[in-house]
Write a sequence for this structure.
């Protein structure tokens, strides 16, 4: 770790500028918006918090610094150290295992020796990657924060000069945000372990509370972190809210939006909360002769991939989808995103509409609001917030009835837990939280858990047994949905309302 002290002595080699790296590896002619300022900031060793809309180009803000040629003072001395060990590495923390491979594949196709380590790899592959990291390969390494639980990882990364720590989807740090991930709260600790490297945190959606929390959780002082707030406004997105009643009115709205964007001008997404509603609309559209594909969590992985590809290649320009669709969708010409049912939170809605109009051309984002849909979301929020007693029962089953669980799966568990109501997702929610806190291990994907592989690895964390804390979280989740309802009801400028919700808090000032 002594090497880390040498970072101050690093010199950028010769006349290679960020723009040259951009051209050489990415074949782009110019930076967008604040990208260059951010890159220069982190190259100078300054920390940054970047708020940029989805598709704004956050990745380059850490990928370009990662690829800047750099000589360290230590490598010039070429002492007893193995030269390759002096190569700096940029560590990217990302919450989504599902996306890592795609992100890394894109980089590798550009000739960049990036890699990832996560639980999707076989043991052998993982060991191989630890070794190549330890040996000084890979200027860019993607991991989830949970990776820090593994001593082998700490050992592999321990000998490297971490030039930059990039925290992608940084809102996961905060309990106040959506998608909270307990391991993200240990980031301050991880930073210390890595020798307090320069850190860049990036997200598309962070309320002022979340912004403050990100800085605090990183173990940084507000005055050390430069905030780059791109504004959340995407001028080319036309935002509309339509109050509707019944399927017919929804269908008419969908037709009206489609008419504004005739075939050949791009594609569109219609989001649903429930697979059941999605399928009902699919049938109605089919009767109208509207070609489309469906994407939801009940399809198997292969089917989902095929549909995603069809959509990406514009073979079918309309997709009906649940929120499972869209992670990593980087399609330029999405002309509209319609929500046929109200999404679960302001954050989720904003993230989903962010997929529209990445090419900068006018695009429509229409939220169809039917009051009856609200109760579905309220129910979802309740189900995704189990109480302490429920956590205890799930944990108990896994400890004492492991054989039955392995043999009969989640259905059996659900039966035991009397959680058989239609949308009761408490079991899934509880398993996900137990896994996030490291109390169990297993594999879960959108299609569900593999019960056979569930393994208890620890006690229930105190956080999940604290009724007050869980009640507060439930309340916060409800408030995020309420914000969306307020947006619908808002008489004034809706853009201003959204801007205030995700506003810039003067984090420097407090
Ligand atoms: P975000 O993480 O902010 O959602 P990405 O980093 O994935 O966005 O970038 C979105 C898209 O924009 C990518 O296809 C990326 O290659 C492209 N992009 C980013 N910056 C530039 C640039 N300066 N010039 C051209 N394309 C860019
Ligand atoms: Mg991104």
């Amino acid at each position: 770790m002594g090497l880390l002290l040498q970072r101050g002595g690093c010199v950028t080699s010769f006349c290679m500028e960020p723009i040259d790296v951009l051209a050489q590896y990415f074949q782009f002619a110019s930076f967008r918006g604040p990208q260059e300022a951010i890159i220069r900031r982190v190259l100078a060793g300054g920390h940054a918090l970047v708020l940029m809309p989805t598709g704004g180009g956050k990745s380059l803000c850490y990928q370009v610094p990662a690829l800047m040629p750099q000589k360290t003072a230590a490598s010039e001395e070429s002492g007893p150290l193995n030269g390759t060990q002096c190569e700096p590495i940029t560590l990217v923390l990302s919450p989504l295992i599902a996306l890592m491979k795609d992100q890394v594949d894109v980089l590798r196709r550009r000739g960049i020796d990036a890699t990832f380590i996560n639980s999707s790899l076989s043991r052998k592959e993982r060991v191989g990657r630890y070794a190549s990291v330890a040996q000084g390969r890979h200027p860019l390494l993607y991991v989830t924060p949970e990776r820090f639980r593994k001593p082998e990882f700490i050992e592999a990364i321990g000998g490297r000069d971490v030039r930059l720590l990039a925290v992608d989807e940084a809102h996961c740090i905060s309990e106040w945000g959506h998608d909270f991930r307990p391991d993200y709260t240990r980031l301050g600790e991880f930073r210390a372990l890595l020798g307090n490297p320069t850190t860049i945190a990036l997200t598309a959606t962070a309320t002022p509370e979340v912004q403050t929390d990100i800085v605090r959780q990183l173990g940084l002082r507000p005055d050390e972190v430069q905030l780059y707030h791109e504004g959340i406004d995407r001028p080319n997105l036309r935002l509309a809210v339509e109050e509707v009643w019944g399927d017919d009115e929804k269908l008419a709205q969908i037709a009206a939006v489609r008419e504004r964007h005739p075939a050949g001008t791009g594609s569109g997404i219609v989001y649903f909360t429930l697979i059941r509603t999605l399928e009902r609309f699919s049938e109605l559209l089919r009767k109208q002769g509207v070609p489309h594909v469906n994407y939801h969590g009940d399809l198997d992985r292969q089917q989902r991939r095929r549909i995603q590809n069809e959509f990406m290649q514009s073979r079918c320009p309309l997709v009906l989808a649940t929120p499972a669709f869209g992670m990593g969708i980087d399609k330029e010409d999405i002309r509209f995103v319609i929500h046929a049912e109200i999404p679960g939170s302001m954050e989720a809605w904003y993230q989903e509409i962010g997929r529209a109009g990445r090419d900068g051309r006018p695009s429509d984002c229409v939220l169809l609001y039917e009051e009856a849909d609200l109760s579905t979301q309220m129910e979802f929020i309740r189900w995704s917030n189990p109480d302490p007693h429920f956590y205890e029962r799930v944990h108990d089953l896994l400890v004492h009835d492991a054989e039955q669980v392995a043999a009969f799966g989640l259905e059996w568990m659900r039966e035991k837990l009397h959680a058989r109501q239609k949308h009761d997702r408490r079991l899934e929610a509880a398993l996900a939280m137990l896994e996030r806190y490291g109390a169990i291990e297993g594999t879960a994907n959108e299609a569900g858990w593999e019960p056979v592989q569930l393994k208890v690895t620890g006690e229930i964390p105190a956080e999940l047994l604290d009724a007050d804390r869980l009640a507060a979280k439930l309340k916060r989740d409800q408030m995020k949905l309420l914000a969306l309802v307020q947006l619908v009801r808002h008489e004034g400028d809706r853009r201003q309302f959204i801007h205030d919700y995700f506003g810039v808090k003067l984090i420097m000032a407090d």
